[in-house]
Every structure is written in C-alpha cells, then in structure tokens.
Amino acid sequence: MKKCYLGIDVGSVSTNIAVMDHEKNILDTLYIRTQGKPVQAIKNGLQEMKNRVGNNVEIMGVGTTGSGRQLAGIMVGADAVKNEITAHGVAALNYVPDVRTIIEIGGQDSKIILLRDGIIYDFAMNTVCAAGTGSFLDRQAERLGIPIEEFGTMALQSKAPVRIAGRCAVFAESDMIHKQQLGHNQEDIINGLCEAMARNYLNNLGKGKEITAPVIFQGGVAANIGIRKAFERLLGCEICVPQYANVMGAVGACLLAKEEVARKGKTDFLGFEIAQSEYQVKSFECEHCPNLCEVVQFHRDSSLVARWGDKCGRWNNLKDYRDEKLA
Amino acid sequence: MKITFPHMGSTHIGIKCLFDELGVETVIPPKISKKTLEIGTKYAPELICLPLKITLGNYIESIERGADTIVVTGSCGPCRYGYYSEVQKEILKDLGHDVEMVVLEAPHGNIPEFLKRVHKISNTKNPLKIAKSLKNAAKVLKRLNEIEAQMLQLRPHEMNKGDFDQVYKQLIKNLENSCGAKEMLINIEGAFKHIIGIPLKRKEDALKVGIVGEIYTVIEDAANVDIGKKLNDMGVEVYKSHSASEWLTENIFYRSIGLTSEQKIEEASDPYMKTLIGGHAKETIGHTVLYSERGFDGVIQVLPFTCMPEIVSMSILPRVQQDHNIPVLSLIIDELTGEAGYLTRVEAYIDLLRNRRESKKDEKMLSRH
C-alpha cells in the first residue's frame, strides 16, 4: 500500500482529481466534466479513481479547491479546503520553484498570479465577463463544428493573420461571423480567435501588472497550443505548460492536504466508499427576516450533514446534526 | 410629522437620538434586506451606483410604515451623491408617494435657506436647543462608532466565538428602543463594560488590514458583503477608514470654520493626486499610504460598481502598492448576492498576506544570525 494524498478541484466546467504520493509524484489524474452536477461528478470521479488505484493506495489526506470546494469538502471529509488561487500557486511553485507569473484560464474564470521569491505577491481574477475564458472557446468550437481538442493545432496551420475583436464575447462572435462571410480560411479565423483571447486576457487581467519570465500557463485552456503560441508572440518569451496543466488545481489541493495533515497528524477522509452513499440536497426559504435566504440542507444517506446559504448564521452555525451523530 | 432617513451602518441611532432630543417622531427604516434592495433596484435608474438603490429601498419601506418626511444630507461635491436627493424625490413623486424631502445643505452657500430647512424639521427655532441636541447626538454616535471600531479589532481574538456579536446585537436593539441621548449613553457605556469583560485569547500573529474606499460601502455592512466580519472570522484585525461620526465632525464642524482634521491624509495622497476629484478618492489613497506607514499587512478597497472617484483611485493604487510595498485588493460591489466570488478573492488575499508575513519573519531570523 502506497501512502497517498487526494486532491479534488470542483470547477464550473470540469471536476479534476489527482492522487499524489509522499514524494510528491503524481500517480494518477482524472478530468471529468461537471455538467452542472457537482455531487454526481465528485461521486463518479471517486468511483473511477477507486477502480484505478484504490487497491494500491492508502489515502493519508484529502484537499478540495475550486468553486465547489465547500460542497466537496463536506462530501469527502477534507483536511484542507482552499481557494483556487492559492492552490494553483502552490502547485506551480512545486514544479517551477522560480516561477514569477502564472496564467490560468479555466472554464468560467481566468486568473493571473504573480509570484516573487516563492510566494504569491499579487493576483487578479476575472469572473464577470465570458470573453477570455474556456467556455467562450468551447462555444466557438461548437459553432465551427470542430472538436475543442483540435482547435489549437488548427490555429497553428494559419498562414495569414485575421484580426478578431476580443474585448467582448458578443462582439467577438459577430466579428468572427463577419470574417467567415468574407471568405477567410477557417485556420486563420481560429488563429485570430486565439490571439483575440490572449490579447483580451493581457489587456484585462494583465493591466498594470509586471509579467516576467518564467511564465507558466495552466488550467483547461493550457491544452490549446494555439493560445499558448499567441501568448508567446505577445509576451515575447517562452511559456511553460507543465505536465499536469489541466489538473493543477487538484495537484495544489494534494500539496495543501499534505501540509495540513503533517500539522494536525491525522486525516478526516471518509473513504472512497462515500461514492456509494446517496446524497440529497433539500432547500427551503428561511422566513425569519425579509432577506428570505435560500438555505440548503445537505444529507448523506438521509442524515443531515451540513447546512449553508443563510446570511446571518442562524442555520449554518446550528450544530444539532453533529449531536445527532454522537447520540 | 414622522421623519425617516436612510440607513448607513449604525448612523440611524445617532439620527434617532437627535430627533428624540428635539421631540420629533421618527420611523427607523427596517434593516437592509434582500427586499430593500429589490425595491430599490426596481425603481432606480439601472446604471446608478448601489447606495442610491439601497437608500431608495429604505425610504419606500419607511413610507410603508407611516413616514411622511425624509431627511437626508446633501452634497454639492462632484460625485453622483450630489444628485441623489433630486433623483429620489422625482422617483417617489412618480410612484405617488406624498412625502416631503428635506435636504440638509446650503445651496450655493445660502445660509438662510439652510436654516429654513433645519427649522422645518426641528420642531423649534431655538438655536441653543438645536445645537445642544446635535451635540448630544454626535456624542452618542461617536461612542457607538468607538465600540464598533474596537469590535473589529478585538473580535478575531475572542475566546468564545460570538461573544462580541451578541453584545453588539443586544446593544443596537436596546438603542433602537431607547429615547434620547441620556438613555442611549447609559446603554452604550454598559456595553463598553460588557466588552471589557469578554474573555480574549490574543493571537500574537494576527494580520492587520485597513478598509478604504467609498464611504457608504465602507460603513454599511449590507453593501460590503460584511467584509469586516468575514475578515475577523479569518483571524484578521480590521480598521475602517471611515466612520459616520468622523464624517459628521469633519463636515459640520471643521469645514464650516475653514479647517480640516484630515491634513495628514491629504498630504499623504498629494504625490499621487494633487487635487480633490470628488467623493473620497483622495482619502482612499491617503489612508492606504498611512496604513502602510503604520505597518499594516494589507489594504482592501471597496467601491460600488460605476463609482467614478473610486475608479480613479483604483487605477492609482497599483503605484501606491509598489512604492509602499503594501498589497491592495479592490472589491467592486453591485447587486450580486452570490458571495462566492468575493470570498475566493478575500481568502486568497489573506493567504498572500500570511505568506508575506512569514517570509518577512524568516528574513529577520536570517539577518540576526
């Protein structure tokens, strides 16, 4: 049995799981689509992971990150529940200790993280606008009828530049249709889209930030070689895409879990078996004040394990379900 | 006459006290809730800044409870706040609410007009009585703001989570049911004694973070995702750069005699912004500089979406951050009720501050050996 750590990154588009051993080697990773059902995605992911490595490893600690980190944390009994910015920073530092800039583009948001002397020094995050995120590329690939996996390599075949407005997803789309109607090559248009996205990222998140090498590119979009090349042209330096670029958040969660378990000496991991448990979410509207908070009650196998969603703490601070467990 | 006014933090206690002293009946608007915001958003212009929407909601909810006169301070300052009362007056008229809006300002320096407005709501023309009531109310507000400031600094150290919240919640409830300065001050002093008795467990390495930005968003916790409490829960001491009582003494007292108590803040911001551009843009920069000089770990700027003065200071803050080596996080607040995005940023920011603190400590250790 190998002693391992489990990292789970529940994002808007994908749910990623990584298994890391004590020497920080990654044993296995998993990338599945969340499809708006994080509970199901986590269950499927854990089941799959159990089938792959479950018999050979002993989980010493588990960490969760991403926008669904609280939910995932309650489901699996996480030792570390951390925001995705810290998780990505920690993971990148592990692979490139002198990294100074991290470009991270995920499904619903994109981030820039600046590091100096091995610590996170500054960051910015974009969530309000879809331009410059993976979902936008996904949608355009769908429009063009090209699998997203081939998007990047097609961009590299471009011979003539086509400029597409990248400021706003709506403008970009109409600009792209216009260029199509003018008869431009598909490769050139795809390349134009990649450049528009990189430009938008740098103008938006990179504004006023000092972007210096070594630069690491991670997140789901890092798999797109077209975007990577566009960044290299715009920044004038080489960009490194680490081996586990698409699951770096999960890798970071492993590292954070390892650190946390070393500090507290034990894990709260509930075991891979929870993939077999039934999870149920019931919500109700609290009528105690005009805020009318939508309170979520989370049940595992019909016993209540957590509540959240209220502003005042009336419900999520209620610890009666813990007492229930004791009794 | 039943007077109402907008909410801004606990300012309603001070205003209630003032009118209690003058013997005028008041209607305190219900606590700001999702409903308040919903009402405000429904009737306010779409692109206006958040405080107008919330205060409009306050007025309408108060009118439903019988208020017929709205008292609000005016400002001819070059920010949209100067137009708030005029716009809101028109909106309320269109909705068919028959209320009077008294704007406390001297239009174009017209002092007789200002006094006329004061007399309209003060139930007396005796300047001594008005001055005395104002002084008493200012004292209540000052002491109350002092409790709040203390709480933001001590709450991360409390031994039993929730002690401070309980005292404060009870205090506000008592104050809302009290009448006049004397009764209110007894309550406040009582709460001070309670607070001293709260058992603390000092965390020696607690981070210190200053909150700067637009005054309404800094003071009103319903408009800043309750940032003070969130930071306290993460074990961070919080210092707010604005309080209602300071604003009151600054505007009513110092400025009227041609002075300012904020000389230091203005000087600190001079290298970055030479002139007043409206709102509290200059103060935001000045406070950031001063906080860094006081050894704070970080500064968080909060501003409503589309706030012009704060957008200007937001674009200057990266330079202040570089010159003074203090990380600044800007949070733009709008009607969004989902807090996940803010939490992620704040959490990551606090991680960043902790790591910086650690690495500084390591440097010190190394240089000692």
TrEMBL record, chain A:
Keywords: Iron, Iron-sulfur, Metal-binding. CDD domains: ASKHA_NBD_O66634-like_rpt2. It holds the Pfam family BcrAD_BadFG. The keyword DNA-binding does not apply. Residues 6-257 form the ATPase BadF/BadG/BcrA/BcrD type domain. Transmembrane segments: none annotated. One of its GO terms (molecular function) is iron-sulfur cluster binding. InterPro entries: ATPase_BadF (IPR002731), ATPase_NBD (IPR043129), CoA_E_activase_dom (IPR008275), Dehydratase_Activator_Redct (IPR051805). The keyword Iron applies. Its cofactor is [4Fe-4S] cluster. NCBIfam families: CoA_E_activ (TIGR00241). PANTHER family: ACTIVATOR OF 2-HYDROXYACYL-COA-HYDRATASE, BIFUNCTIONAL PROTEIN [INCLUDES 2-HYDROXYACYL-COA DEHYDRATASE (N-TER) AND ITS ACTIVATOR DOMAIN (C_TERM)-RELATED. This is CoA-substrate-specific enzyme activase, putative.
UniProtKB/TrEMBL annotation, chain B:
GO terms for molecular function: kinase activity. InterPro entries: CoA_activase_DUF2229 (IPR018709), Dehydratase_Activator_Redct (IPR051805). The keyword Hydrolase does not apply. Signal peptide: none annotated. Pfam families: DUF2229 (PF09989). Keywords: Kinase, Transferase. Residues 16-240 form the DUF2229 domain. Gene3D superfamilies: 3.40.50.11900. This is Predicted nucleotide-binding protein, sugar kinase/HSP70/actin superfamily. It comes from Geosporobacter subterraneus DSM 17957.
